[in-house]
Amino acid sequence: MKYILLISALTLASCYQPERNCTHFKTGTFEFETLVGTEILKTTFVRNDSIEIDYFRGVADTSSVRWLNECEFIVKHVNPKNMAEKKAIHMKILTTDGDRYLFEYNIIGETRKEKGNARKIAE
C-alpha cells in the first residue's frame, strides 16, 4: 500500500508543469529591478514584436528583438556605443505567473547565465 501511494505521489508531481504563457509577454511595458551592490536599480522597457526601448536613469536605448520561438529571443543594441553593447543577449522566459515572468539570460557566446524577474505594467 505504501508503494502505491509513493508511486501515485511521484506520478502526480512529475505531471506538474509551471505556467508558461510567453505570448502574453511579447509586447507591452515592463519593469525589471535588480540589486547592484546595495542599490536596487529599476529599468522600464517597452517591447513590441521586434523593437525594445529601455529607460534607465533617464536614458532611452533601443534594441532589436528577434524571436527564436514562443519563449526565447535575442536582444541586440541598435546603436551600440562600445564593444560590450555590440554583444547580443539571449533571453529565455522560464515561467510566467499572472503579470510576471522569470527569465534567464546570457551574452551570446558566454556560458554564464543570470536570472531575473520582470513585471508587465501596461499593454
Topology:
Layout: H1 2-15, E1 28-36, E2 39-47, E3 51-56, E4 59-67, E5 72-77, E6 89-97, E7 100-107, E8 114-122
Order of the strands making up the biggest sheet: 1-2-3-4-5-6-7-8
Question: Strand-residue fraction?
Answer: over 45%
Overall structural domain count: 1
In terms of quaternary structure, the protein is single chain
Contiguous low-pLDDT stretches (5 residues minimum) are none
Q: What do these coordinates show?
A:
With 123 residues, this protein is mainly β. It has one domain: Lipocalin, CATH 2.40.128. Helices cover 11% and strands 53% of the residues. It is built from one helix and eight strands, in the order H-E-E-E-E-E-E-E-E. An eight-stranded antiparallel barrel has the order 1-2-3-4-5-6-7-8. Strand 1 (28-36) and strand 2 form a beta hairpin. 11% of the residues are buried. The mean pLDDT is 88.
Brief write-up:
With 123 residues, this protein is mainly beta. 11% of the residues lie in helices and 53% in strands.
List keywords for this structure.
123 residues, mainly beta, eight-stranded antiparallel beta barrel
